[in-house]
Amino acid sequence: MLNMIIDRIRDKIRGDFKPFTLCLSDGRSYLIPNPEYIAVGASIIVVITQDDRVLTIDPQHIISLEEEPGRKIR
Predict the structure, then answer these.
(1) Is the pLDDT of residue 2 over 90?
(2) Are 16 and 69 in contact (CB under 8 A)?
(3) CA angle, residues 70, 5, 21, in degrees to nearest 5
C-alpha cells in the first residue's frame, strides 16, 4: 500500500503535470501547485507550502490525491 501511494505521487509529478491536493488522515490537505513543491523519497514525502513551510509527511497518512479541476499551472 505504501509503495502504491508513493508510485501514484511520482506518476502525478512526471510529464504533463496538473495541480493536485494531498489529503491526510487527520483532515489536513495541501495543494501541490507544481512539481517543485514536493519531493518523494523511498518512504517519505516532503511538501513545501506556498508560505515556505517544509512539511515531512508519512505516506501512510495520505488518504487521497485530488486533482484540481480546471487548473493547470506550469
Answers:
(1) no
(2) no
(3) 30
- Which residue from 48, 43, 1, 3 is spatially nearest to 22, judged by alpha carbons? 48
Provide CB contacts within 8 A for 68, sequence distance 6+. 18, 19, 20, 21, 31
Q: Cell 513545501, residue?
A: 48
Which pTM was predicted?
0.85
Q: Which amino acid is at 33?
A: P
pLDDT grade for 74, boundaries at 50, 70 and 90: very low
Contacts of 33 (CB under 8 A, 6+ apart): 19, 50, 73
Residue 18 in grid coordinates:
496538473
Residue type, 15: G
Domains of the chain (ranges, CATH numbers)? 2-67 (2.30.30.100)
